Amino acid sequence: MKRVLAIILGGGAGTRLYPLTKLRAKPAVPLGAKYRLIDIPISNCINSEIQRIYVLTQFNSASLNRHIARTYAMAGAGFSPGFVEVLAAQQTQESPSWFEGTADAVRKYLGLFAEWDVDQYLILSGDHLYRMNYGDFIQRHRNTKADITLSVVPVDEQRPSDFGLVKIDKSGRVLSFSEKPEGAALKAMQVDTTVLGLSAEKAKVSPYIASMGIYVFEKQVLHDLINQASDRTDFGREILPASAREHNVQAYLFNDYWEDIGTIEAFYNANLALTYQPDPPFSFYDEKAPIYTRSRYLPPTKLLDSHVIESMVGEGCILKECTVKRSVIGIRSRIEAGCVIDNALLMGSDYYESPTERLKHLGSGEVPLGVGANSTIRRAIIDKNARIGRNVRIVNQDRVQESTREELGFVIRSGIVVVIKNATIPDGTVI
Fold it and tell me: Nearest to residue 293, comparing CAs of 41, 75, 50?
């Protein structure tokens, strides 16, 4: 894997994940009580012995830069020499515009990538949840002498138009690629049950094969494709459909859990699925392929006569006489007596308030960090540093599907209430 350079695409403004992306880049969105989305592809790279990693981002990259600098100082963290470096969009005289798509982002830094003596570029997305040994993926690419290899996964008929879909032959060669097709174009992409070792039973349940947004390019092939036409700005819409006709493009079938965390609903469901027992679809409990993140050296979580059911609780939390059911509780969370947290995601806090500060807030009628006494939170996401008052009910009692109330500190997406980072929800509020 020493002959591979990894390039992680941080995505655009992340509008479908808004307001979680209001103050941070999409790869910096917190995940699973203590991680961030970017930890997934970087950890997969490290576990696959790929240690030269660039992360391309454009929007709100300050917290992402900070997280990567504090977490992945490779030599200092005990890894063999390597790097993880953020490349933010920049304007130059030769290229005055920002990133205009995934391929354009790579094009603008192609000169830097060309300096590395490597054979392949591994291009990854920064907002997916999965665990993969990229070594197997790259080995198939080399064995088939491919110009490009796509990692693909079977998907059902619920939302195939959300993905780039491929048609492949029996050997796994990609015959065509269609980005988010609909109607007749979607029907034409249904899978042939004999391809790539996919069983007839599996093909019946999942009749489409979707690109995971994970690609291996031969170095020179990528340079040629990027430089051929400057108007081709996106891999899925332009580069890959044309490449399938002109190059040896292969597919690598991935047979494990993979989730595209592109929307609030997908993000919420993926987090809560981590709590499922006895066999969650994705687990952080794998010693052979750990997911790395920043070491914070927080104290153990303290549970004071609390009832916690099928939940994940991060470090440094204090839960007092409350009930937490099938929820994910982030680092430094403070939940007071009488609270019920049910099927919710609390991202926690970036800092603590001392007992003196908390009493001062309460004495002056202000709301301390965390969740105040006798509050109920159900089917909601509470972003970092939020202040939830006493006797608050965040339950979407009117079953609203979509609403934007940022002036009040929250929005509703797909029926899920999202309290914005740093927001304050006053005592007695009902949402």
Answer: 41
Cis omega (within 30 of 0) on the bond before 41?
A: no
Q: How far apart are CA 293 and CA 40, in angstroms?
A: 9
CA dihedral 202, 208, 213, 218 (to 10 degrees): 90
CATH numbers and ranges of domains, the chain: 4-273 (3.90.550.10), 302-425 (2.160.10.10)
CB 282 within 8 A of CB 131: yes
User: What are the residues facing 259 on neighbouring strands?
Assistant: 129
Q: Report how far residue 419's alpha carbon sits from residue 346's, in angstroms, rounded to the nearest whole number.
A: 10
**CA atoms of 245 and 297, how far apart (whole Å):** 52
Structure confidence by residue, pLDDT tens digits, 286-340: 999 999 999 999 999 999 999 999 999 999 999 999 999 999 999 999 999 999 9
33 or 159: which leads in pLDDT: 33
What is the per-residue pLDDT across 235-253, written as a single tens digit (0 to 9) for each?
888 888 888 888 999 999 9
Looking at this protein, which amino acid is placed at residue 358? R
How does strand 318-320 pair with strand 302-304?
parallel
pTM of the model: 0.92
Please work out, in degrees rounded to the nearest 5, the angle formed at the alpha carbon of residue 265 by the alpha carbons of 263 and 270: 95
The structure tokens 């054979």 sit at 119
Residues 6+ apart with CB under 8 A from 302: 317, 318, 319
CA 149 to chain centre: 22
Tokens at 175, concatenated: 């015959």
- Helical H segments across 33-159, by residue range: 39-47, 62-71, 102-108, 110-114, 134-143
Question: Collapsing DSSP states into helix, strand and coil, what is residue 134?
Answer: helix
Give the pLDDT confidence of 275-300 residue by residue, as tens digits. Answer: 987 788 999 999 999 999 999 999 99
Q: Give 159-188 pLDDT, tens digit per residue.
A: 788 888 998 888 889 988 888 888 888 888
Cα atoms in the Cβ-side hemisphere of radius 13 Å centred on 79:
20
C-alpha closest to that of 369 among 390, 347, 388, 342: 388
